[in-house]
Amino acid sequence: MIDTTTKYLGLELPSPVIATASPVTSRIEGLQALAEAGAGAAVLPSLFEEQIEHDTMAVHYGLELGSGIFAEAAEGYFPEMDDYNTGPDDYVRSVTEAKRSTNMAIIPSINGYSRGGWVRYAHQLEDAGADAIELNIYFVAADPTTTARELEDRYVRLVEEVRMEITVPLAVKIGPAFSSVPEMARRLFSAGANGLVLFNRFYQPDIDLDSMRVEPNLVLSDSAEMRQVLRWTAILHGRVEGSLCATTGVHTADDAVKLLLAGADVIGMASALLKHGPGHVRTVLDGMNAWLEEREYVSVDQARGSLSQQNSPEPAAYERANYIKTLASWS
Fold it and tell me: Which of 157, 234, 256, 297 could cross-link 292 (Cys pair, CB 3.0–4.6 Å)?
């Protein structure tokens, strides 16, 4: 029997397969099904900075209606803004309900891009019972006057601000577009992150040729997208002080085993769960356990990082030395 227990962000989890944010983790029934299938934790769909701003401003404009027009309503007809609930009350309640309904670790997600007061909501999520919080930094650098270092500094400041608001573990979900992923990883851990989620899958726009409009177009991942995550997980394992969650393109037991061998502490799934349902976690876990048992491993900890760059017999395979070999492998 394989010991599948693992540590992520300092949390003891029953298995290394977790459900990342998706519609599956937005419903109590989905969370309960994930827990039954053996998922170690679930990340809830994000609370968006824009959502908080929109709700707050909508109330603000409503309160200002008629202000200054009539003498009897010089300050407006309604109480001051502080008397209204424009924060993420529904989201906070969903965290509390998720903790009440399952015995699984629940990790709410905050999705933002700027510095500001919205990070204070992290404290509310902690009070609601969150086991950890994931900061999902979704920022596309489209301004040609913003330097790479300025962008990196923005990430670091965001992590520092959220860290100041909470005492529970903090995971930071980032994209791969940094000149030096290892250096950036170290900066984020120094800023207060307890773990990194590799990687944020930025959704790409599309153009509708009939309407002549730029439209969102969600395309689910496939296993081929796992390669980039595999590389950076293997390079970072053993070189940074904190947890690594590998996600994007994890669909099969083989995918999960590869990321475990590369050094992932946990393996996140979303697209595969949307395709196959929450029970697919059990399929992946059973396949992973069978592979480990066949090779006489006794635990996932024993296998973790066996083929990271530090432990690989061919460490250069994760770098440029493998480039020509890869091209030559096509037939």
Answer: 297
